[in-house]
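Input/output pair, single chain:
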Amino acid sequence: MYLYHCLNNISDKGLNKFSTNYMAIDNDKDADVILVRSAKMHDMAFGERLIAVARAGAGVNNIPLDKLADKGVVVFNTPGANSNAVKEMVLCGMLLASRDIIGGNKWVDENKDNPNISKDMEKAKKQFTGTELEGKSLGVIGLGAIGVKVANAALDLGMNVYGYDPYLSVNAAWNLSKDVHHVTNADDIYANCDFITIHVPLMDSTKGMINRDAIEKMKKGVIILNIARDLLVDEQAVLDGIDSGKVRHYVSDFPNPTTAGHKGAILIPHLGASTEEAEDNCAEMAVKEVMDYTENGNILHSVNYPDCDLGICPTAGRIAIMHKNTKGVITQYTKVLGDANINVADMANKTKGDLAYALLDVDSKVTDDLVAKISAIPDVIRVRVIK
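Output:
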């Protein structure tokens, strides 16, 4: 029996995918698995049973990845599960920025008691005149699951689309329309696009990538959209761009005291992935990842350990070994198995930075004594008997 704890409300559509071998508990310290959305975990103390954390969403800034990796806890996320919801929010943001829908709606609210509202609106609507998306150029920075959907959808709206991603995956390339202009330098997007939307993970290399230098290279009247991560954009530089007339609008899903209420800034209260469908999809993917890991040892979509898959174990036993990616560790634990006269029928060893993860299918049952000997090897972090 595996015990799981939810730090946030997780969709029942996902939780119902758990088999009868899983049970929800109220105390996270006794859980084998924690499911989370936005709860802050950096100051949490984790129980010894914990083997996996699943984030029902893509971003993992709220999770102490290194701390959990050092304890041999795999952290999963659910990339792509909320991509359609975010794509639709980007399209909504472009429409809100190009057509003054918010201003028009505010005018209606202000004139709700005006008996002549139907007549007066014909004069008032001139101040809310906007522009169309068709024929405009959109630059998409980051062509992952969300960026590809945004790019393809914009083409269907009659836009010219430029895409930039130096790390474009094979899967993304297959899904990306051939009509997207793939550029190899973000400067080409800055120089040519009326709209720019960013969809990259937040890392040291991407923090503040939309900055004063980037804005200086952009077209006058550019509309910048950030439905990804707040720190990807130097927001003061964008607001200064609005004040100078260089930037027409800044659409962000992350309101804060710097941007809220500033003229030209359209702020959405972090609703990018807030749809019933996205929450269901994220929960279902998270549960699927967790079950495959707990029952088979397979890792898919981990953010702190390498992905590794040996399918369902066909032999008498399977063992998972988490260790430092250092020379000689594999030799040491295979020697332990050999000394115990245990044959390795199949094996996969994958690395990710300083960490490594191995799955070994063996022809004999794995004993507690064997686990103790492998666990005693320097640089071995954790050993799990899967079968």
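The chain is about 30% helix and 20% strand. The mean pLDDT is 96.
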